[in-house]
Amino acid sequence: MSEKYRHVAEFRRSFEKDVEKLDREMRDRVFEKIDQLLKGSHIGEPLKGKFRDYKKVRIGKYRLIYSDKEKCKIVYDELDRLLN
Amino acid sequence: MSSQVIFPAISLSQLQIISKPGSEIYSTLGKHLEPYIEETLKNPENVKAVAGKLLMDARVSFLLFSALQKTTYEAGEKDLIEAFRFLKSLSRKFKDAGIDVDEAFSIFAEHEEWKFKKLKGEFERFVTMALDFMNYPEDLYEYAVIYFSLFLLLLASYETEAHEKLRSIGKELKNLADKLENYTLTFMLAFEENEEIAATARTPEEVKRVLRIE
């Protein structure tokens, strides 16, 4: 059993659904970012309005949205589909 | 100044409808937009200042609001597809000029699709979200400036064939699209803020379990 993180991660329902769309390589990359965040890194660009506590982290064509105070989610970037 | 700005609810797919031949609103809007497009073409790096001026132009605001009224119920999926076709043809023009704006256009397209779907499918929630966002006047003003800057850059790129100019417009498009993405994600989140927690993790193993990494 590995060491406990300093923080507890809470994942939204849509995060679980979004994970199903990811291939193994991308899941590993998402894990690396979450691991980094839970170890205390503050990376990413802040969102706006009442969500300014949230930050966006790009992982390839996906965006991981997180907050120190709120829950995690992944937004699938469907950009290729839109223009092709 | 920022308190006078209203949420820019219009989308490219709606302008697509009024851009059809014979549309009086569009030809009037076109005439009013012309000086702003020219100014953008002269100096694309200055587009945010031009968009700021445009936002204070009561006639343009009224015409955009009228276009919104006319098209909210009229706009359909085909208009969105048409708007994306327009972006795709512009994208080829930029590539010929030696600059790749595909990612910037994709970010803009994502914003447009999201807005279009909410305007069509969840109009009242969209209005509530926009009203709530207006509680943050600085962010609202920045969003309006970024959004209309992108509009002006798109229209300016349609008007020119000069490769050097297109490269300079493309550079601004990329820069502003990155900023637009933060707003798209903010609005998306506003529609999902009450979502339940499905899992928690306190260790790397638990995170891997959530991510289904064996």
Task: Provide a descriptive summary of the structure in words.
The complex is a heterodimer of chains A (84) and B (214). With 84 residues, chain A is an alpha+beta fold. A four-stranded antiparallel β-sheet of chain A has the order 2-3-4-5. In chain A, a hairpin with a 5-residue loop joins strand 4 and strand 5. The C terminus of chain A is likely disordered. By secondary structure, chain B is mainly alpha-helical. In chain B, helix 6 crosses helix 7. Chain B is globular, with a radius of gyration of 19 Å. The chains are: A alpha+beta (84), B mainly alpha (214). The interface between A and B is large, with 45 and 46 residues. Strand 1 of chain A pairs antiparallel with strand 1 of chain B, so a sheet runs across the interface.
Concise structural overview:
With 84 residues, chain A is an alpha+beta fold.
CA-based shape of chain A? globular
General shape of chain B: globular
> Hey, roughly how much beta strand do the residues of chain A contain?
25-35%
Write down the overall mean pLDDT of chain B: 88
Order of helices and strands of chain A: EHHEEEEH
Radius of gyration of chain B, in Å, reads 19 Å
